[in-house]
Amino acid sequence: MAGEQRPRRGYRDSVVFKALAKGGKAGPIQSETSVGWQSFVRCCFLCDRWQADAMNVGFLHPGLMGETLASNCSATTLWASDGRSNETRRRAESHAMIDVGSLHAMVDKADAIVSICPPSAAIELASTVAEVGFQGLYVDANAISAAAARAIAERFDHFVDGSVIGPPAYKRGTTRLYLSGSRSAEVAAWYDGSAFDARVIGEDQGAASALKMAYASWTKIGSAMNLAIRALAQAEGVDVALVDEWNISQPGMVERSELVATAVSPKAWRFTGEMEQIAASFSAAGLPTGFAEAAHEIYERMVDFKSADQVTLDQVVAMLNNTGE
Hints:
Layout: H1 15-23, H2 28-33, H3 35-48, E1 56-60, H4 64-71, E2 76-79, H5 86-94, E3 98-99, H6 103-109, E4 112-115, H7 122-132, E5 137-140, H8 146-153, E6 158-165, E7 175-180, H9 184-189, E8 196-200, H10 207-235, H11 239-249, H12 253-264, H13 268-284, H14 290-301, H15 313-320
Parallel strand pairs: 1-2, 1-4, 2-3, 4-5, 5-6, 7-8
Antiparallel strand pairs: 6-7
Helix pairs in contact: 1-3, 10-12, 10-13, 10-14, 10-15, 13-14
């Protein structure tokens, strides 16, 4: 970490710590070396101070969505460069995030950690953070099932379930951050006046994730179905007729096919894990899982478009029909 960049106030700088260090039975030296005393002070500090401008919030990791969660956050933002790509470094540095190096260092310095990663990695990442010994507030903002969110919540004393609906938030009015859990209002305060519309929807762990699963079932499964329909029509030689009929009876469907092909293809690889989470959500509710499983297969066939530019509908249809290069 560069010498001129340091996280703002940590718990050793807090009023609570200083008061306890002076007035308690343990002196300043013992307070720095006693694990029990440190734990007591930190618990008091975490419960007593959750003001955004006094917090260090770590982000795992600053990808496309993670960088905007970090850049819109009013707290001091941290990231860990170990094992991350040059592209991730570029994003983090462009938003003046402080590189603490490793996950262990982040656990030591952060008052809160926000997890924003591919859905398939969410539980493993949470387990790793918990095993390292993180005692602060853990916010899971991933596209996971309510059951997965509740399982993660069991690993932490302080937990908020989150979900993002909308694109990376570069301007207001595009993206909502839904939050549930007893400390949701505190997390929402980090985003006051930002491009994120942070909304608290209750204290039940898993509520924010359940909303994401329900919403994405329509948007992402619907997008996969739209592309699959175009592939079917092309395979049967009736695509022109389908387009004509859609223009008559389903205005906007043709344009949606083209938009979905361009916008979704570069990130289809990430949607496979989300489809697994949606299928698990439907199963837990006693509902058929076939919609999500079929969409998973569609997105699986599109993984080679990862990070591609200007993907066309014809390219996607060819890929789905296994006639592309």
